[in-house]
Amino acid sequence: MGRSPCCEKLGLKRGPWTAEEDMTLVAHIERHGHSNWRALPKQAGLLRCGKSCRLRWINYLRPDVKRGNFTGEEEDAIIQLHGMLGNRWSLIAARLPGRTDNEIKNVWHTHLKKRLEASSPSAAPKRKARKPVAVTTVPAALPEQPISSCATDYSMASSTTETTESFSPDSHEFQIDDSFWSETLAIEVDSSGRSGMVAPDPLVAGGANSMSSSNADMDFWVTLFMQAGDMENSPQI
DNA sequence: AACATTCACAACCGCGCAGTG
DNA sequence: CCACTGCGCGGTTGTGAATGT
Fold this sequence. Notes:
Largest sheet: 2 strands, antiparallel
Strand content: under 5%
Radius of gyration: 19 Å
Oligomer: single chain
Number of helices: 9
Distance between the termini: 54 Å
Helix content: 40-55%
Number of strands: 2
Structural class: mainly alpha
Number of domains: 2
C-alpha cells in the first residue's frame, strides 16, 4: 500500500522536544484542534513530522494525561487486563483514565513483566522507585513548566493525588478505592478521555474473529476479572 | 569520589487498517 | 474496485538518571 514516508526526512527535527516546541504545539492544538496531523506541523510552524506531533500530544501534552508513578491499583489493573487482552496497550489504556498506551507499555516492560516473571511474592525490585512522583494531571498549557523530555516530575499539583496509594511493589497490601474502580470500570472505551480518538474495540471491529465478543461482553469480562482480581489480592490484606 | 551498571522513560520506526477519491 | 493517504498501534531504541561497587 502506498505509505508515505513517515517524515520527509529533510530538515525535520528529531529527538527530545523543547519547551518552545511544546508550547507551540499546545497553543496550535488549542486554537485549531488536530484534525490533520500531517498538516499540523506546517501550520503550527514546527519542524517536526505529524507523527511526532501526535505522539507528543497524546503521550505528554494532553490536558488529561496523568503523570507520575502508577498506583498499585493501576499496576494491578494492567496485569489483569494484559492477561485478558494481551499487548493491546491502547485497549488497556482506554480503561485506565489518564494513562497512555505508551506509558503502560513502558511500565509493563520495565517492572510489571519482571514482577510476573519472577512471580514470587518476594520478587521485589532490587531498587526502590526512583522517582516518587505524585500522580498529577498536566495542564493543557504550561509554558513555565519544564515540559521537555525530562519532565517526568510534574510534582506541583498534589491536589489530584487522591488515590489511595498504600501499595508497595513487593507486598500486595494496597487498598482498593471503590469509587476509583466504579469510575474506572464504568468507563466505556469510546467515551474514555481520549478525545474521541479511540477506535472501536479492535477485538470486535478489527475482524479478529477469534474473539467475536461484543464490546459489552468485553466490558463484562473486564469487570468480572477485575473484581475477581481484587478479591484475590485483597484476602492477603 | 569515580566509574560501571541498571533502570525508566520519551521518542522513533514500521506495519496494518480505514477512509476517501 | 483500486490506489492512495493518513492515522493509530505495537515494538524497539536511545539517552539521561539513579544506584551499586
